[in-house]
Amino acid sequence: MKLIYKIAKTELRNLFYSPVAWFLAIAFLVQCAIYYTGIVGTLAKGQDWYLTNDPTFKEYPMSLTQTVFIGSFIGFFTVLMKNLYLFIPLLTMGMISKEMNSGTVKLLYSSPVKVRQIVLGKYLSILLYNIFLMLIMSVFVIDGLLSIKSPEVEVVIGPAIGFFLLIGAYTAIGMFMSSLTIYQIVSALATFLTFYVLSEIGKLWQQYDLVRDLTWFFSIRGRTEKMIRGLITTRDVMYYLLIIFMFVSFTMLRIKGARESKPWFVKATRYLSVFAAVLIIGYATSRPGFIGYWDTTLLQTNTIHEKTQKIIEQLGDEPVEVTLYSNLLGDAIHRAAPKFRNEYVWDLWEKYIRFKPNIDLKYVYYYDIEDGDSTLYKRYPGKNIQQLATMIADINDLNPSRFIPPGEIRKMIDLKPEGYGVVMHVKYKDRSAFLRTFPDTKFWPDESNVGAVFKRLAEGSNPKALFVTGDLERSIYKLGEREYALHTSLKEMRAALVNHSVDCDTISLDRNDIAPDVDLLVLADPKVKLSDVARAKIRQFADKGGNMLIIGEPGKQEVVNPVLQPFGVQLMNGTLVEITKNEMPHMVYPGVTIAGTELAIEDQMLRKYNRMLKAGLGIPRVLNEGVSGIATSDSGFTVKHLLVTKNRNAWAKVGKLVTDSADPVFVREEGDYKLDSFSTAVSLSRQVGNKEQRIIVCSDADFLSAIRLSGGNLGVAYYSWLIYNRYPIYTPPIGEPKDVLMTISVARAKIEKIVFIWVLPGLLLLLATILLIRRKRQ
């Protein structure tokens, strides 16, 4: 070891006596300075502007430590590590080749020094230089942490480790390339080429099962991205250590082979042995159940939520089988083809496999078209379904023989209700459920969707919501702008109830009774009066403690009020009017109350509204287009007002309301009336037996319609509260960031920019010049 250290010391001294090392250090310093001062200066200016011009500004809405260091596109580490490959080839191109070129390598061969000691000494010297670069980088890290109030120090741990491992791997590669040729330029170009190959190899031959995992393992792309985000895994750490081991070993074998006159196949066997050892160890350390994880972020942003973890715990030791069905003739084959399998495994499922290693992933590739769908036949006339499959497989560079024909897939599973798309069928014990993909940019399901399916399978039951039909109510199957399919039964919408394990169906109360296992009954804007039979069934359901969502509209108070009367609630006469310069008079903007935000306080947006209201920072508002007031009386229910028009100068127009002409005029003689505040949504609750009965009454049915995006977060919260917040599976952050203010002023940021970009590099250049001149004189 002493000899290795001695060689490393000599190499390091020679390194700092060369202008290349100093040039790279200065370039690295300038690059760090530009990236760092850019983001810090922007945040400082932004904070100063908001504090000066916005009296409601208290803090930034995000973690500033994460923004500065690991933010997408602009984060210090994010940008720095993308450009790191530019420095290493220039640093390593002469590590071995200069010895070969000058002939000093023969002196090393004749000395008692072993090849292993030579290589390790040289590599250690470069690692020490890498530490020097990290010291330069640490100047900006320390300054950044000092420039943020209550910084999240843990954020920089992962990127720092990733930086050191990445530069160590790059160095090992560069050293091996330097041993292959006496020409330093060729060595540098070969190093660049190797970096490119390792970066792109993960995209090659992904459609072939035999080589997919091999090329994916050797791909360096994305390895540090998780570390930058703060997630350190033994799989990624071992990858870099194995890459370092492999190329350092290759360097030893190369130098050793140059001294020996052995057959080529003997030398090749040595290389293959190292390669095989790396593959075996890499495979073993990347299997589910053998990977260790360390989420260094304070709020555990790289780990699935504690609620999801508890749901997975409920599954016990029983395996979960997930079969991905991919349709060649569907619209999403470009996301679910065999060549994207590794992305599917590691991007979607790794975070769940971390807590349940016995999730068994299977794949079925098929081609089929819905009966009656002639789109493809019209686009490609004269072709049958098999010819279509062959043609599209060729276009996508896929093997058509891998795809099961319609006859076989229909015998295997019924995918007609799923539209023959890309869908996952999840099995657990004797239970199963579909986990869907969605036609948006994210495509794969969210954690709340996955958690809902797991919970459904673990508990063996799920909420059932019935929507009353037969009286011209809003439909959960139609896609019109006034309908409710968007947030209930539309499987293509990730936020729909059906994708959060809530079964939605309709019921005609004139013909059917309400089953005892129904969790929620919804009466959404009936246009004609309900029959006595229907009202009696609703009353009976309510008397037993059933939960309900009852929605009416202005002009139809006489239809809904008989249903509401037993609950002490009535829709008030008339239509609310709010005169503003931008909207029609029937468009009212009631404010969300604290009670409204607490329907589903785990929802991130409602939690933000809750804090805003309690801090007196404003009132979040929603749009009610055509709404009446709601009156309540004492009937044994606890009443909470969810949406109110307080401070909006709203009043009720009882006469005919004209919305497309001049502003309506308040005429008391026509029955128009004013109140200090109108409620447009209320919640009712009471104890019935051993359960709490919950009812929500709204006076604007359009609020939950497709044209109003189903009421957004608040609309989802209505349903969540009515089913006791069992679904959706909200996964909010486990806490709020504390590093939300900068401590650095704009003036100081400008000074730092000058110091970091000009003064420090100038001092380093001066030091390098003095050292190199003194060395030359000696």
TrEMBL record:
<keyword id="KW-0812">Transmembrane</keyword>
<dbReference type="Pfam" id="PF12679">
    <property type="entry name" value="ABC2_membrane_2"/>
</dbReference>
<feature type="transmembrane region" description="Helical">
    <location>
        <begin position="155"/>
        <end position="173"/>
    </location>
</feature>
<feature type="domain" description="ABC-type uncharacterised transport system">
    <location>
        <begin position="466"/>
        <end position="706"/>
    </location>
</feature>
<dbReference type="GO" id="GO:0140359">
    <property type="term" value="F:ABC-type transporter activity"/>
</dbReference>
<keyword id="KW-1133">Transmembrane helix</keyword>
<feature type="transmembrane region" description="Helical">
    <location>
        <begin position="180"/>
        <end position="198"/>
    </location>
</feature>
<feature type="transmembrane region" description="Helical">
    <location>
        <begin position="126"/>
        <end position="149"/>
    </location>
</feature>
<feature type="transmembrane region" description="Helical">
    <location>
        <begin position="64"/>
        <end position="88"/>
    </location>
</feature>
<feature type="transmembrane region" description="Helical">
    <location>
        <begin position="268"/>
        <end position="286"/>
    </location>
</feature>
<dbReference type="Pfam" id="PF09822">
    <property type="entry name" value="ABC_transp_aux"/>
</dbReference>
<feature type="transmembrane region" description="Helical">
    <location>
        <begin position="755"/>
        <end position="773"/>
    </location>
</feature>
<dbReference type="InterPro" id="IPR019196">
    <property type="entry name" value="ABC_transp_unknown"/>
</dbReference>
<dbReference type="GO" id="GO:0005886">
    <property type="term" value="C:plasma membrane"/>
</dbReference>
<protein>
    <submittedName>
        <fullName>ABC-2 type transport system permease protein</fullName>
    </submittedName>
</protein>
<keyword id="KW-0472">Membrane</keyword>
<feature type="transmembrane region" description="Helical">
    <location>
        <begin position="237"/>
        <end position="256"/>
    </location>
</feature>
<feature type="transmembrane region" description="Helical">
    <location>
        <begin position="20"/>
        <end position="44"/>
    </location>
</feature>
